[in-house]
Amino acid sequence: MPQPIAIVDAFTDVAFKGNPAGVCVLPRERDDEWMRNVAMEMNQAETAFVHRRDDGDWNLRWFTPTIEVDLCGHATLASAHTLWEAKHLAPHEPARFRTKSGLLTCTCGQDELIEMDFPSTPPGKGDIDIDAAELSRMLGVARDDVAAIARTKFDVFVELQSEQKVQGARPDFAALGKVAGRGVIVTAPSSGPRFDFVSRFFAPQVGVNEDPATGSSHCALGPFWSERLGKERLTGHQISRRGGVIHVIVRGDRVVIGGRAVTMLRGELSI
User: Fold this and answer.
1) Were both Cys, which of 18, 44, 50, 135 would link to 9 (CB 3.0–4.6 Å)?
2) pLDDT digits (tens, 9 = 90+) for 132-177
3) Could you give the 3-state DSSP secondary structure of residue 168?
4) Is the Cβ–Cβ distance between 19 and 11 less than 8 Å?
């Protein structure tokens, strides 16, 4: 039988914005090679593969065009959106995903805002094992533009002096791809009142030079800016070319990440 598949723009309510993800709702579990090949063919930052478990929860895995990843926010949001839209779940029934990062629960609230309950992965404190001058060169910013460098569970975390410095970063992706970890988060306070902070996310290590809107990076951005600004509820703007708006609520060792989604394409795999 043909396999349905969709492309969903996540962290946006406007077509051709946010972060596109492939979503494949499977009738049964498929082998890793098949999923890797489909993800490579879809050529999105991530393609999500979902199938229902006997206990009613959903197994969820994420693949970039080159590797499997342990956590992906925008493809989780896209998966939940697809399950509700295709009526695999009732409109207000939670989507419970079993993943390599544990149980992730999504709910759909007011104005179709999807909220995802993720583990917090705040940047660590103390010495960092990366030369600041070299990392600045890789990011295409001046050394004086860098306010702080740290590591999260997955990524290198870089605070720059201003939104303009984040926007103006011009990374050397070949060099940046050699930095240990999944990717590099770059952030600064927002220069306007609508958002609390801005960010960009570079991950040539996993085949994605710049991710348009990254939910999982906000598991680190949320706790960082919550402590810095003294707020539990924040709104971030990922200032990639496509852009994305991510709502964050920090609750102890969990982070609720919220956003909207738009289905852009539905089709079938003929294999």
Assistant:
1) 18
2) 999 999 999 999 999 999 999 999 999 999 999 999 999 999 999 9
3) helix
4) yes
Report how far residue 92's alpha carbon sits from residue 261's, in angstroms, rounded to the nearest whole number.
16
The count of C-alpha atoms lying within 13 angstroms of the C-alpha of 146, restricted to the half-sphere facing its C-beta, is 22
- Measured in degrees and rounded to the nearest 5, phi and psi for residue 162 equal -160, 165
Catalytic residue among 46, 115, 159, 210: 46
Furthest C-alpha separation in the chain: 58
Tens of pLDDT, residue by residue over 170-224, are: 999 999 999 999 999 999 999 999 999 999 999 999 989 999 999 999 999 999 9
| Length of the chain, in residues | 271
Give the count of beta carbons closer than 10 Å to the beta carbon of residue 52.
16
Place of tokens 């306007």: 192
Q: How far apart are CA 138 and CA 83, in angstroms?
A: 40
The residue to which tokens 């969709």 are assigned: 6
Domains in the chain: ranges and CATH: 3-108+259-269 (3.10.310.10), 132-252 (3.10.310.10)
Tokens of 50: 């979902």
CB neighbour list of residue 180: distance below 8 Å, 6 or more residues apart: none
**27 in the Ramachandran plot: left (φ > 0), alpha (ψ -120 to 50) or beta?**
alpha
Question: Is pLDDT at 1 greater than 80 in this prediction?
Answer: no
Q: Show the DSSP H helices in the chain as ranges.
A: 32-42, 73-85, 132-139, 163-168, 173-176, 218-229
